[in-house]
Write a structure and sequence with these properties.
Elements: H1 32-48, E1 54-59, E2 66-71, E3 80-82, E4 94-95, E5 104-110, E6 122-128, H2 142-149, E7 151-159, E8 165-170, E9 176-181, E10 188-195, E11 200-207, E12 226-234, E13 252-253, E14 260-267, E15 273-279, E16 288-294, E17 300-306, E18 312-320, E19 324-329, E20 347-356, E21 359-371, E22 391-393, E23 396-402, E24 408-413, E25 418-425, E26 432-438, E27 444-449, E28 457-464, E29 468-475, E30 481-493, H3 496-502
Parallel strand pairs: 3-5, 4-6, 13-15, 22-24
Antiparallel strand pairs: 1-2, 2-21, 5-12, 6-11, 7-10, 7-12, 8-9, 8-11, 14-21, 15-20, 16-19, 16-21, 17-18, 17-20, 23-30, 24-29, 25-28, 25-30, 26-27, 26-29
Length: about 500
């Protein structure tokens, strides 16, 4: 069962080679409403055509579309095989035997205990991916070939009550690629790991290290020692993430189709973090980037944008199930992005993170599109959380988003002394605070604070000098709404005194 040696290392993809691009996503370069519907229908068609026992489909409700991976309620499944000892070294590792369609294997194991009652056993299992081992002609084509050939491995380990487990993923050199630990009786799941045909990997099951899990180790049931592990071998669907992708070097790449790009993933474990590399060369001068992350019920997510050196540009966080939105992100020029490659390529990283909660069956979907700023009306430009990055502001109505912990700063410049009327209508769950600040010395000229959420605050008749002022919007502690915009209205007029002089 050991694959022939081709002289090439067999990594747990994508650790040894960063992917070049995702398979083309079925997204057309159309207007957002019609284009997104085409995206969803096309992706659904691709997902529904798989032979997996979990039949994915989209569910639409009050929130944006999410992908659901349903478990078929059948009496079948892989035969349950008993673990055999000793199996604590690679040489003695128990090989999993694939059965059925899709290929699956199931093991019932036991973590043996020491004389003192401590769970100290280690169980090691060999996983051989069926298929021809990939031979890569050159390093230049290696990453793309590995990415296209990867198979999806899904691992679920259910322990007996009271047993806290850790699961390690190892490549064929026994290098640890991913380690996860769970509390007593909690399931450990790796739903979408990428592996290469013809290669060998290892799954190591052991007691969770003390101090690494909530609730203590082996709490509540000293006799708890057994577990059941199920491993499925599946195909990746269009735009699926490939784990591990928790850092810039292993980020999956979003490919533009017209003016849109799309990716989906799973919040497979506590604080799961997924990185995506988004090329910016396709963004036309003067265009801006809009991002949406469709929420997953039961998971509070975060969405961040980092520059090509991994430095955070802007981030939003939401409540459980909340859709996250970032609007009017201004891509950097080649000259401004000091981290761009010599070829002039530009990119950002999108980072999707589970701030709290786990869901191994419902996919999140992140959408990216480029638009002309005026196509959306008056919107804030991000980042704009300080005076150095303040968004330009003119008379009229401007929209923006205040997620948890966010601050938005606008710069208003009057050609002559005026009186200003400022009104801010916040969305639900936001008690807005408005400050008007003179830019040259930071003096606060006026401020207003809402007493309750969704309350409009106003500053009327504010004397405005003929110099830049800053309008700073913030919110109460723990307030925030990443899916509903606020409205900022500004109207300038000549003061009554100046108007009388002109008459």
């Amino acid at each position: 069962m050991t694959p022939p040696d081709t002289g090439l290392p067999c990594p747990w993809y994508p650790d040894n080679a960063r992917p070049v691009r995702n398979p083309p996503t079925p997204v057309g370069g159309r207007r957002r409403g019609r284009g997104r519907m085409i995206v969803i229908v096309a992706l659904l068609a691709g997902l529904a055509g798989t032979s997996c026992r979990r039949a994915p489909h989209f569910v639409r409700g009050d929130a944006a579309a999410v992908v659901v991976v349903q478990r078929t309620r059948d009496a079948g499944g892989p035969p349950l095989v008993a673990e055999h000892e000793p199996n604590d070294t690679p040489a003695a590792a128990q090989e999993l035997v694939w059965a059925g369609t899709p290929p699956a294997a199931a093991i019932r194991g036991t973590i043996e205990r020491s004389s003192a009652g401590r769970a100290a056993d280690i169980d090691l299992f060999k996983v051989v991916i069926p298929g021809q081992r990939l031979v890569v002609a050159s390093d230049a084509g290696r990453a793309a070939d590995l990415f296209a050939a990867a198979r999806r491995v899904s691992v679920v380990v259910n322990p007996e009550a009271g047993l806290a487990l850790a699961v390690d993923l190892l490549d064929e050199t026994t290098r640890v690629v991913k380690t996860l630990a769970a509390g007593p009786g909690e399931t450990v799941g790796l739903p979408n790991m990428a592996a290469l045909p013809g290669c060998t990997y290892y799954l190591r099951v052991r007691s969770a290290p003390a101090g690494k899990v909530r609730g203590g180790v082996d709490a509540g049931a000293a006799a708890g020692s057994s577990y059941q592990m199920t491993v499925l071998l599946l195909d990746f669907d269009a735009a699926d993430e490939r784990e591990p992708n928790d850092r810039p070097e292993s980020a999956g790449e979003l490919s533009w189709q017209g003016r849109s790009a799309l990716a989906s993933g799973l919040f497979g474990w506590r604080h799961d973090e997924d990185w995506y590399r988004l090329p910016l060369d396709a963004a036309e001068p003067g265009w801006v980037l809009n991002l949406d992350l469709d929420g997953v019920e039961g998971v509070a997510a975060g969405l961040a944008v980092n520059d090509s050196a991994g430095r955070k540009i802007v981030a939003v966080r939401g409540r459980k199930g909340e859709k996250l939105t970032l609007r009017n992100l201004v891509p950097p020029t080649v000259a401004a992005d000091a981290s761009a490659s010599a070829a002039g390529s530009r990119w950002w990283y999108l980072v999707v993170r589970a701030e709290s909660g786990i869901d191994r069956e419902h996919r999140y979907v992140v959408h990216a599109e480029t638009v002309l700023p005026e196509a959306r009306g008056g919107f804030e430009t991000e980042p704009n959380d300080d005076a150095a990055h303040a968004s330009p502001l003119a008379d009229g109505t401007t929209s923006g988003y205040l997620s948890v912990g966010d601050v938005d700063v606008f710069r208003y410049v009057a050609a002559e002394p005026r009186e200003l009327d400022i009104e801010v209508s916040p969305p639900s769950r936001v008690r807005v605070k408005v400050e008007v600040i003179r830019e040259r010395d930071g003096q606060v000229l006026a401020e207003a604070v809402a007493a309750k959420t969704r309350q409009t605050v106003a500053i009327h008749g504010l004397p405005c000098p003929a110099e830049p002022i800053l309008i700073r919007l913030s919110q109460g502690k723990h307030d925030g709404n990443a899916s509903e915009p606020y409205l900022l209205r500004v109207a300038g007029r000549l003061s009554q005194r100046d108007a009388g002089k002109r008459d």
